[in-house]
Structures are given as C-alpha cells and as structure tokens.
Amino acid sequence: MTTGSTYTIKALDESTWEAFAALVERNNGVFGGCWCMGFHPEGLDREDAACNRERKHERVQAGAAHAALVFDGEDCLGWCQFGSPAELPRIKSRAAYERTGSGAPDWRIACCYVGKGNRRKGVATAALAGALQLIARLGGGTVEGYPEDAAAVPAGFLYNGVLSTYEALGFARDRRIGKHRWVVTRVVDPAAGV
Asked: In this model, does residue 167 exceed pLDDT 70?
C-alpha cells in the first residue's frame, strides 16, 4: 500500500521482519534495546536487548505484534505500532487512563518510531496513516492514541507520537492523562470487502 508520499506501507510480519530488525539494529535497539516490547504484556527486559529481540520476533511469528512499517524502496524508515488492548496493555499514564476512562477501545496506537536521519520527513505521519489503513483491513473500530503535545515535550520522549499529527489525521481529543499526554480517539470504518 502506498501513501500520498513516496513511501510504501507494509505490515510487520515474517516477510518484513528483516527490514524491521535492520532498522532497530541501526538505531541501538531503539531506546537502548527496547525492540518495541515495552507496551506488550511481558514488557521489556531492561538488561537484555537480545531477549527483547527474541520476544518481538516470537510475537511477529505468532501474529501477535502489529505495526505499519514505512518503506522507501527496500529500506524500513520507521513504524507505528498498534494492537488490541490485550496485545498492548502497558500504556504510559495507565493509572490516570483507567481512573478517567469509560471503556477500552478496539485498537491502540502505542509507539511511533522514526530512525535517525529520517525524522521531519513525513515518516511518522505516513506510519500513523498506514496503521489506520491496516486497522481498516482488520475490521476497523474505535482507535485510541496517547500522543504528547510536542511544544512542551523534548523530541526524545515523543514515542507515542505528536498530538498535531493525530489531529491532522482525524483524531479528536478525549481527555488529558498526563501533563502533556492526551487520549485521542477516532473511529475507523472497515475496509471494503472486510
């Protein structure tokens, strides 16, 4: 699937694992070895990046990890992780989220990541838009994200994405769950033929 830019979106699966892994390895395992495991039920092993890599690969092989990967040719530049609340229960500001919420969504956007050298080139926007397209193919539903207000947060802490990007793609602010973190929602219709 292509986006409005020159990027192509592909789902994270066995066929894209090597490109995903190459991006993670070029970027120090992402945040020092996370491998995008922090939001999964088992969490991340802060001492063993190899364990995180193995767990992520096992999840991908089992079809229990979802992400929209952004490609420029054969190179994976970034991704937007998404999944059901059961797949991604470990969200940031979870206590505030549970205290103020009224129910779980069908899907969560957990992490948006763009590799070094590709930031500020529309990769994060393409990744989020791609995640919404993949969610539509999986039946659609209510989607939540937990972005930060970029004007108030250093770029290194924006792993949930930027509020303005979500709003540009049709998400509405639901409630604040942190000093600069919001719950945003959008309903995604199922793709035709689903």
From this structure: yes
